[in-house]
Amino acid sequence: MEYFIKSGNPEKQRVACVIVGIFDRRSLSEAAATIDTASEGAIGSVMRRGDMDGKAGSTLMLHNVPGTFADRVMLVGLGKERNFDEAAYRKAHTAAAKALRQTGAIDAVSYLTHLPVKSRDFQWNVTQAVLATQEVYYRFDECRGAKAREKETPAKLERYTFDVPRRSDLPSGERGLVEALAIDKGVTLAKNLSNLPGNLCTPTYLADEARKLATGSPIKTKILEKADMEKLGMGSLLSVAQGSSQPPKLIVMEYMKGPKTEKPIALVGKGLTFDAGGISIKPAAQMDEMKFDMCGGASVFGTMAAIAELKLPLNVVGIVAATENLINGEATKPGDIVTSMAGITIEVLNTDAEGRLILCDALTYAEQHYEPSFCIDMATLTGACVVALGNVATGLFSNNPALGRSLLAAGDQVGDRAWELPLWADYDENIKSEFADVANIATRGGREAGAIIGATFLHRFTKRMKWAHLDIAGTAWIGKKATGRPVPLLVQYLLNVAARRTESA
User: Fold this and answer.
1) Cβ(291)–Cβ(274) under 8 Å?
2) Catalytic residue at 466?
C-alpha cells in the first residue's frame, strides 16, 4: 500500500472511499458536515434513523451518497467531542483501517487527519494516522505453509491518502508521512524478528540479519564471536551461553552520520533468542513466549533501520547481546560466581535472571569502546515490571534526569509511553552478596521491587555513563504477538535529538 498527502474537498474526491468523523451525540465533524450539505442531508438522515451515533470506534459504510463522487463514504465514531484526545484520535484511525480491510476499496481518502488534537499539529496527525493504519495491516505469515498463505485474502487497498486542511499544511503532512514510514519500517523489522520461533531466530540468525542491514546502507556491522568475548573477559555474558549449543554473538551496528568529534549515542539490547531459565528452569506454561526475550535486541535492529531510512545526522551505535539460556551439563549453576568484563564478580543465585548478566557486559563494552554521550538499554528484564505497569507503559530508569525526561517526552509524543521508576541508592543493599561483589537477584527483601532490583544491578555497570534502562517486559509483546515497542519511542527520541542539534547549530 502507498500513502499520499493532499488537500481537497471531501465531496469532490473520485475514490472508492472517503472517510469522515462523527462525534458522539451525532455531532458532525467539519468534513462530515460538508458531505452532509452536498448530499442534502444524507448523513443527518442516517443518524436520525439511529444507524450511527458517534460512539468511539464505531463505523458505518454508506454507498452512492448523493452529491459526492466517491463510491463509499465511511462514517467513523469519535466519541465525545470534549473528550477527544490523542488516544481517541488513534482509535478512530484504527477503526477506519479495520473497516477498510473488510471492503473492496482499492483507494481511500481520510479526513480524520483534519481533526484537532490539543497541542498537536498536522505532522503529528499524519504520523499517528499512518502508524495506526500500519498496525492494523501488519501480518506475519513467514512460518505458515504455502497453501495457507495462498488462502490468505490480501488487503485490496492500494492507495491511502490523508488530507490536510490547507495547502500550506502539506509540508507538515509530508514530513509526518516520511517519519511514520521510517518508524513503521523499524517496528515491522522488530516485530518480524521477535515473532520468529527460537529454532529459526538464533544468535547466528540475528548476526546474519545485522550483516544484511548493513548491505546498501550507512550502517557498518561487526560481530564478536565467543573467542572475542573470552579475550575481552565477558565472563558474565558467556556464563549464560554455557548451557546452549548455539554460539553467542555480540552484534555491533555503527551508524556514524554525525560530526566526527561527536560521541555516539549507544543503544544496547537484550537478545535472548530463547530463555528456558537455565537450571532455574521456568514453568512449562507459556514458555513458548520466551522466544520474545530478544525483543530488546530486535528493537535495536528496528531503531537502526529507521534512523538509516531517515538519514539522521547523528552518531548511533547499536549493540545486541545474543544468546540462548538453556540447560546442559555445562550450564551455569545457582551459586556459581562469574567475573564480568568490568571486573565485577557476580554470584549467580538464579540462572533465570540472565538478562542482566548479558547486558552488563554489553554495557561495559559500549562504555569502554565508544564512551557514549548517552546510553540506553532495553530488555524484557523482569516480570515484576509487568505486575507494576501492565502492558501500557514501559518501565524507565535513569541516572540522568534530563535523559529520563527526554525519553518520557518522546514516548508521550509518539504514543509509546514509559513511566519512570526510582533508581535510589537505598536499593543497593538488596543485591549484596556474601561471596562476590554483587548478586544477580535480591538477597534481601524477597520479591519486592523486582524491576528496580534489576535496574539497580545494571546501574552498577553504568555509573560512569549517562544511562537509561527500559524494561519492556510488559510492552514488547501482548498475548502471542510482538508489538515492536519501544522502537517508536527510541526513534522519536533520536528525531528530537537531531532537531535540537540542528536548531543549536
Assistant:
1) yes
2) no
Distance between the two ends of the chain, CA-based, in angstroms?
Answer: 38
The answer to whether 398 touches 407, Cβ cutoff 8 Å, is yes
Q: What's the pLDDT score for residue 154? A: 74
The amino acid at 87: A
Grid cell locating 184: 513503521
Helix (H) or strand (E) holding 254: strand 249-256
Kindly name the residue from 80, 263, 282, 466 that is annotated as catalytic.
282
- 381, pLDDT greater than 90: yes
- The number of residues in the chain equals 505
List 91, 270, 356, 417, catalytic entry: 356
Rounded Cα distance between 490 and 347, Å, is 33
CA angle 200, 204, 210 (to 5 degrees): 105
3-class secondary structure per residue, 476-493: CEECCEECCCCHHHHHHH
CA 187 to chain centre: 6
Q: Rounded CA gap, 113 and 123, in Å?
A: 10
Kindly tell me the sign of the dihedral angle through the C-alpha atoms of 298, 301, 304, 308: negative
User: pLDDT tens, 245-260?
Assistant: 999 999 999 999 999 9
356 is catalytic: yes
8-state DSSP, 335: T
Q: Give the global pTM.
A: 0.96
Count of Cβ atoms closer than 10 Å to residue 93 Cβ = 25
Label residue 486 exposed, middle or buried (CB < 10 Å: 0-12, 13-18, 19+). buried
- Residue 457 CB coordination number (10 Å): 27
Distance (Å, whole) CA 473 – CA 465 = 24
Asked if 214 and 220 count as a contact pair (C-beta separation under 8 A), the reply is: yes
Q: Give the DSSP letter string of 165-233.
A: SSGGGHHHHHHHHHHHHHHHHHHHHHHHHHHS-TTTS-HHHHHHHHHHHHTTSSEEEEEE-HHHHHHHT
Q: Is the confidence at residue 439, as pLDDT, over 80?
A: yes
Helices (H), 243-337: 295-310
Distance (Å, whole) CA 214 – CA 230? 26
pLDDT tier for residue 310 given thresholds of 50, 70 and 90: very high
How far is the C-alpha of 200 from the C-alpha of 298, rounded, in Å?
Answer: 14
Cell 481518502 -> residue: 109
Which grid coordinates are listed for 344? 565485577
Question: Which string of DSSP letters, residue by residue, matches 281-298?
Answer: PPPSTTGGGGGGGGHHHH
pLDDT digits (tens, 9 = 90+) for 149-189: 666 777 899 999 999 999 999 999 999 999 999 999 999 99
User: Reduced to 3 states, what is the DSSP secondary structure of residue 272?
Assistant: strand
Helices first, then strands: H and E counts in the chain: 15, 20
Q: Which of 462, 233, 206 is nearest to 324 (CA)?
A: 206
